[in-house]
Task: structure prediction
Amino acid sequence: MRAEDIIIKPIITEESNAGLQEGKYTFKVNKKATKVDIANAVEKLFEVKVLKVNTITVKGKEKRVGRNVGKTSDWKKAIVTIDTNPSEKTYQSKGGKEVKVSKKYKTSIDEFMGA
Result:
């Protein structure tokens, strides 16, 4: 699956806006997507470092119009925690030399509020 097919839309509610201060963003995602797929898609689309992904399957509600009873479809919600303070990583290479790796990650998703 492509990253555009995994992330459907952001969810903007009071509760999700409260989580923005902690670096938690809420998305409606494809029902077949795994946590790893979601993390990779968010990293690719928004250029942020994902720390944790929590997923919830939301059951559809029963609706009625007159005497006809139907059900809305089930959907999947993902709460993605991003790294708000990305730092350089160091590791030992062959020969005992220290190598620093610093990828340029954003500290927030700017497109989230514009959706």
